[in-house]
């Protein structure tokens, strides 16, 4: 019979069985190392609930039952599988035991252990018990609690209680924080001091310290405000725990360093001043405990780095001191590291032994990475460094190095020194590391550092050092594919480094004073060569690096390397598993070619680009557009949308028609990603001069895009709205052609559909709105006067104006300034129905003695008032200057005073008031708006001058006085 089934029968017959029999059966189950797959989670939960009803908390079998709960919750079942009612029974069983004063200390430990497993990341079920559970755990976790094992288990419970709790536990975070810190430091009134008196020689104390740091990590991950608490410095506490256990442990010969070299050569001998009893005994248990403390302290730093990275910036020098170069001089044998001469020059040939050193160099994350014997600690160190460096680009941009010395060291120079030592430390750490998992993580640290560092203000050579140590210690294309992929990912990050173009060019193709071998570009080409074959994952990463090279180093390297890449590309394109990634390279190559052609490209290079596109279209794009893989079809569209305007315009007509023929069917593709990419490509094509003047293409393109404006997928509608906006912009440009007639480009039904879909899109997802109003404004700008005589058209315009006004008043800033600009475009059409309605026949009584209509008798188009109110509100109330500038532009656009309706005076007073506000020296302007200040003044001035001819004489004199000097 299976042990769990026997245990169930034992529980059911517990009243007739002796406690020893129940204990024996529980211990039999607890000794099982494997899961019982015949039992579902719910069956085991039911068994636990049954046990809570059959075994009282003071029963002799209670300790074994608590161990059963702990093991099942950690090894067998998912705690989230508990129903609320079952969880409540189990939790109350354990909680009642904690509150029972008659329960002995050993049983308390077992209860707390079971409770810690039950509540881990289970805030959904636990939250209703916080008011009762938390104070109970805080009492047991207090620094005065003895024995220590009870305190440790209570601390574990507090940590597990915080894990994933979020805001549900917010009321208790501060109390938990204070109790946890009381186990690590002495808290006085207004001050905090680390506890130097913790007796880490006591195993129980070490376990408490480790559990406290673990719980602190969970807590800091949930409440980021605790990190900036001025009373308790979590950063210092975590780092002190790392360094103190390091200092006590580093005296042992097992410390991961080069000490074995010194010991073997007799530097440490019986004649040394250090006796055999001074730290030379090896204690495996102490080693493991100290490593756990260091590991959990590092995880605390990791939590801080993820939740409050900017708070950690001022503390970086505690973890990465800028004296690390000095440390290396004292601790590394230069000849032992097969690195470059430039690296060896930073060390000495006869360094001081770490055991005998007396210079007290600071401990840091780099020393842990270099010397800690525990793989888990080195792994945690790497994760912490990655978390610190991620997103730090803005901070590290300040780093600079200069050759001249000065008594004053700026923050930029301190950061420069820190970045220097961080690069150097990682080079040595990678050269020294033997564990493959840690090596992979060090490479990821390097990648994160390169992505976030700006090298233009630093000394050259850092990337070259990285490249050399990576190839010499990690690269083996015939070895572990996983490690080779990580190496290639690191090299990919190197290609994106900012401010190191010349150094990367040297790494790729050579030519520098200190050229590297092997050069990277030949190495990459060898990996994708037809002869080598190679593993797919390695080839995929290689193509990814080549794509980044094309994106970031096109002109200097890749433009002239196509002849060497073409054969490997043709081979990769012929393989379905590599077709997508190789075509991604073509897309990157084509995009960079477009940027290259947009500047002063030579006629010879332009001819090369044209021939390249002719070959790509005929040999690859044509085939890729019909590929069965949707990713390949998406990249086909992306490649076409990357074609440079000068290239397309000079392609032979046959290739132009081929490109259009391949693209036009793709908006109807069954895959939404393909439809979206095709709409984007059509939006790019319609701006080409030859195509925007091609009425057939414009008509076909409009039809294809209109169908996608009603697509159920938001991404497709977004790309279609962008393409539709470009289409209407292209029509505006085409309208400058003599004899332009809109009906020759699009029919009135297509015009109606464009305006209707734009109106709907202007009320759709916020991402669509900016393009929708752009299309609306451009289309109405070129609409012929006779369109406005149609009753149906006027209904469309009414709805369009409602959507336009809504987007002027609300939405993202981009949407609002596009809406204001669209209003200006609309008013640029003299025939647009705005302001006073002039069509109806007035009676004699509607005129005054001078033959002018009485103002109150003049009727406005219904959208006039709302449009001008929205523009006035945007001009006066919006803080963003781009919105205000475009609102002022719109207010100064109408060609006739009648287009203002009854609002001319209001518009004038608003613009005049805005002018005075712009001249006010006491007015506050947000920093990011300063660059638009002068443009704003110019636009307001232009608006006043535009309004002047239609104003009363007194107002005209006011404007003349304002601009008398100009």
What does the model show?
The structure is a single chain. With 966 residues, the chain is mostly helical. The protein is built from 48 helices and 2 strands. The model is unreliable at 248-255, 257-281 and 333-360 (pLDDT under 50). It is globular and about 105 Å long. Strands 1-2 form a two-stranded antiparallel ribbon.
Question: Which tags fit this structure?
Answer:
mainly alpha, two-stranded antiparallel sheet, DUF4042 domain-containing protein, ARM-like, ARM-type_fold, DUF4042
Briefly, what is this?
The chain is an all-alpha fold.
Give the number of domains: 6
Could you give the count of β-strands? 2
Number of helices: 48
User: What gyration radius follows from the Cα positions, in whole Å?
Assistant: 37 Å
Question: What portion of residues is helical?
Answer: 55-70%
Q: Write down the overall mean pLDDT.
A: 85
Shape: globular
- Major sheet size, sense and barrel closure: 2 strands, antiparallel
Q: What's the arrangement of strands in the largest beta sheet?
A: 1-2
Low-pLDDT residue intervals, each spanning 5 or more residues: 248-255, 257-281, 333-360
Structural class: mainly alpha
In oligomeric terms, what are we looking at?
Answer: single chain
The N- to C-terminal Cα distance equals 102 Å
Strand content: under 5%
